[in-house]
Amino acid sequence: MTRASSRRPGPPTRTERGIPEATVARLPVYLRALTALSDSGIATASSEDLATAAGVNSAKLRKDLSYLGSYGTRGVGYDVEYLRYQIAREIGVTQDWAVVIVGIGNLGHALANYSGFGTRGFRIVALLDADPTLVGERIGDMEVRDFAQLEEIVEADRVSIGVITTPAGPAQDVCDRLVAAGVTSILNFAPVVLSVPDGVDIRKVDLSIELQILAYHEQRKSGEAALPQVPELPALNGMPDLPSVGGGVGA
Amino acid sequence: MTRASSRRPGPPTRTERGIPEATVARLPVYLRALTALSDSGIATASSEDLATAAGVNSAKLRKDLSYLGSYGTRGVGYDVEYLRYQIAREIGVTQDWAVVIVGIGNLGHALANYSGFGTRGFRIVALLDADPTLVGERIGDMEVRDFAQLEEIVEADRVSIGVITTPAGPAQDVCDRLVAAGVTSILNFAPVVLSVPDGVDIRKVDLSIELQILAYHEQRKSGEAALPQVPELPALNGMPDLPSVGGGVGA
DNA sequence: AGGAGCTTGTGAACGTGAGAACAAAATCGG
DNA sequence: CCGATTTTGTTCTCACGTTCACAAGCTCCT
Q1: What CA–CA distance (Å, rounded) separates A70 from B120?
Q2: What is the DSSP letter of A197?
Q3: Helix (H, G, I), strand (E, B) or coil at A249
Q4: What does the pLDDT profile of chain A (251 residues) look like in tens digits?
Q5: d(CA B65, CA A144)
Q6: Cα–Cα dist B191/A41, whole Å
Q7: Closest CA to B72 of B44, B30, B92, B52
Q8: Of residues B192, A166, A206, B52, the one with CA closest to residue A174
Q9: Is A162 helix (H, G, I), strand (E, B) or coil?
Q10: Domains and CATH numbers, chain B
């Protein structure tokens, strides 16, 4: 999304050390599938096996893997451990990334409690909150620190990834501070559109949006006939009482 | 994704009461932007205003809205309240959807505590867990109930949406039970690929995948020169010690 | 050694999505 | 009442993503 590099015309211009965004988004899924296979003691897997485990079709998987190189063997399949290492290296999780979590509400709390953030490759170096009553609280083996210490921590620990789990209100300010401190990747759980300068990547996770997408499809399944086919057109400013939809989900 | 209805050829065949998936995913964002504008007392907004608030470009926004109908006025813009109602109706959040949350670990706990799940249009009717030591615990104004009561609850409250916040292990079983009980939309936080029959929509939220996508881009920013351009090829089964990447994030 | 049988890697066709650009329609000022 | 101005709705074009289909390449069996 944020990475749509503008390239010159001609052929799809795939490589050039650039992997399509859609493929990048699936690599972690393949990585997990490979880990599962490896844990089951399976040493070799065909694209069909892998695709099943990852929930995609095999042609797509093969094409995705082809962007990384030719790591399979025709007639045989892929060496699970080898491919796993190659994908991990390509994604960048063979090294450790320092992460700070800002906003220790319900959600921040929950994330902090994930064992090592659930995934190797990432290391939570600080839990930050501006609320003095939270500072000092222990969560697992960490202690909540004052948001004012952000710059200091980012510099000391070379933090490149920030997770925002504050309410919508302060999210943009927190984001600006993170960016100013040198953070270049942000995972945002606050229900707002954050704006960041070029060179900073941002991804958003929004529970209420996911639910609303499900609701749309749900409505088309059950409704189909129960819905007015011609959209009812209440006179301007005269529509029925409307609940405040679209509200926030932030911690 | 799950809703790729196969249609006959010809023109893009947009309407037919079908809105492109990419557009559906943005409607909730527009809804939130409209709510914000409405709360600021703004009665009318141009596509440019709205697009800025929603973080998209105005041409895309106009095209998205055109799938719903002609709700704007040329030379003027859109009536904020009116458009908000139309989008809410199209998404389906003018009615209330009953939701159950299964798996009251850290994350389930956090979700349960969101005020009314953060968004009107959805109503949490039950928090379920199979762990007897959790059953009976009060969270907000709700009480954790036994997972065994699932079918009963789904039927009684006409639950159509289920949220899975269990660890990876039991997730598929929970999913099967939900589907069997009559749930037709699932929001999955467990780090596994769930398989569901046709007619059931599933969406996945996966923190570790989001982080890994950020890591990939981060690596290309900082690495670029520090990385071996030619992928190092450790002999088969002879690669360096590899941390167990791709692990889970489940509660 | 040679052919049969698999499975990968990729070229080509197709479908979906994004953005530029413009004609149609509404308001407003004179 | 008419023309200038604004802004929508839509068409067209291009880029991206997915899927099909098959040649290339590897292994195994005879």
Answers
A1: 50
A2: -
A3: coil
A4: 334 333 333 333 334 568 999 999 999 999 999 999 999 999 999 999 999 999 999 999 999 999 999 999 999 999 999 999 999 999 999 999 999 999 999 999 999 987 646 568 999 999 999 999 999 999 999 999 999 999 999 999 999 999 999 999 999 999 999 999 999 999 999 999 999 999 999 999 999 999 999 999 999 998 654 444 444 444 444 344 444 444 444 44
A5: 44
A6: 20
A7: B44
A8: A166
A9: strand
A10: 21-91 (1.10.10.10), 97-207 (3.40.50.720)
Torsion of CA A147, A150, A153, A157, to 10 degrees: 120
For residue A23, say whether its CB is under 7 Å from any atom of strand D.
yes
Q: In angstroms, rounded to a whole number, what is the distance separating the alpha carbons of residues A5 and A20? A: 10
How far away is chain B from the Cα of A177, in angstroms, using its nearest Cα?
19
The residue assigned the tokens 């209100």 is A169
Contact at CB, A91 and B216, closer than 8 angstroms: yes
- Residue from A127, A166, A165 nearest A146 by CA: A127
Tokens of B184: 């037709």
Task: Tell me if chain B has a CB within 8 Å of the CB of A57.
Answer: no
Nearest CA in chain B to A113: B106
Nearest to B249 by CA among B106, B101, B102, B118: B106
3-class secondary structure for A36-90? Answer: HHHHCCCCEECHHHHHHHHCCCHHHHHHHHHCCCCCEECCCEEEHHHHHHHHHHH
Residue ranges with strand state E in B68-152: 72-73, 77-79, 97-102, 122-129, 138-139, 142-146
Instruction: Look up residue A26 and give its two tokens.
Output: 């699936």
Cα–Cα distance measured from residue B24 to residue A107, given in angstroms and rounded to the nearest whole number: 26
CB of A48 lies under 7 Å from some atom of strand C: yes
Q: Is the CB of A143 under 7 A from strand C?
A: no
Handedness of CA A26, A23, A187, A168 (dihedral sign): negative
